[in-house]
Amino acid sequence: MSGNRESGIGNRELKEEFRIWLVDAPQVAAPSIALINPTTDNNSDHK
Q1: Which of 21, 35, 40, 42 is 20 to 30 Å from 5 at the Cα level?
Q2: The pTM is what?
Q3: Which domain of life is it from (predicted)?
Q4: pLDDT digits (tens, 9 = 90+) for 7-33
């Protein structure tokens, strides 16, 4: 089953990318989410 071996390698690479994404995502996403969807904290700051 060469397909299983290939998917196994793909899964390992995917986990690596996912771990990197988990580390980077909060730093990248937080400002964007704040701009698109202001939280109650942001709203109270503007008042």
Answers
A1: 21
A2: 0.27
A3: Bacteria
A4: 666 778 888 877 777 777 777 767 666
Q: How many CB atoms lie within 10 A of CB 38?
A: 13
- Amino acid identity of residue 28, one-letter, is V
Spatial separation of the C-alpha atoms in residues 19 and 22, rounded to whole Å = 5
* Structural tokens at position 31: 């400002």
- Both structure tokens of 24: 């980077």
**Any idea where the domains of the chain sit in the sequence?**
2-46
Residue 26: name the closest of 37, 34, 17, 38 by CA: 34
